[in-house]
Amino acid sequence: MTADVGSVPERSATPRQSQKEATRQRVLDAARELFDTHGYQGTTIREIARRAQVSVGSVFTTFASKGEILSEVMVARLDPLFAEIDRVMPHLRGSTADRLRTMFAIHFEFEAKHVRLFMSHIAAAYDWTLSEGARPYGRNARLQEVIRETLIRGQDVGDVRLDVDLQEVIDLLMSAYAWTYRLVITHEADTKAMIAVMDRQIGLIAEGFAPRS
Q1: Can you give the pTM of this predicted structure?
Q2: Which residue segment(s) compose the domain that 36 sits in?
Q3: Which of 3, 13, 53, 125 lies 20 to 30 Å from 118 when distance is taken between CA atoms?
Q4: Looking at the structure, do residues 43 and 119 belong to the same domain, yes or no?
Q5: What percent of the chain has pLDDT over 90?
Q6: Any long-range contacts for 23-26 (C-beta under 8 Å, 24+ apart)?
Q7: Which residue intervals of the chain are DSSP H helices?
Q8: Are 33 and 100 part of one and the same domain?
C-alpha cells in the first residue's frame, strides 16, 4: 500500500528573517539615492547606514563592501534594460556596426536619468578594495554576451572577419562606452551628444573588424 504524500507547506519567514530582509532593502534604497547624488567615492558605508537608519554593523552583516552594495543596486536596475535589449535586438536590420549603435543608444537613453549612478558603477571597477562578490562595470557578463552575439551574427552574414578576436572587440566597445561618459563632466554632454560620439567610435572600431578587401 502506497501512502499519499502531500505537498510540504512553505515555511513563512521568521521575524528575524523578515527584519534582515527589511534592513537589506533599506540599505539598498539608501545606497541607490546616495550613489546617484554623491557618486561612488562620495558615498560611504557610514552615510549609507545613516540614511537607512541602521547601524554600520548591520550593513556589514548583510554586505561585504560598498562595491557589493552598488552591485546589488545595479543588478536590480539593469534587469529591465536587458529585457528591452533582448526584445529589440532580434528585430534589428542593417550592418553589425548599425546594430551595435542601436544597442548602445538604448543603454545611453536608459542611463540618462541616473548618469551619476551609472558612473558610480564604472568607478567601482577601479576600487582596489572590492570584495569578491562585487560586480562593477566590466564584470557584467550580460553586456558582453549581447555584444558577442551581435558580432557572431555579423560573422554569419559576412561583415565581421572570422579571424577577428571577438573579446578584443568587446573590450574596445565597452571601453569606448564607459569613456564616453567623461563628457558629462568635461562638456556637460547630454544623451544625444554622447550617442553621436559613440556612433563615430563604433564606426572606427568596425573598420578594424570588417573583412579585408
Answers
A1: 0.84
A2: 16-63
A3: 53
A4: no
A5: 70
A6: 23/52, 23/54, 23/58, 23/62, 24/62, 26/52, 26/53, 26/54
A7: 15-38, 45-52, 56-62, 66-88, 96-111, 115-123, 141-157, 166-180, 182-186, 191-209
A8: no
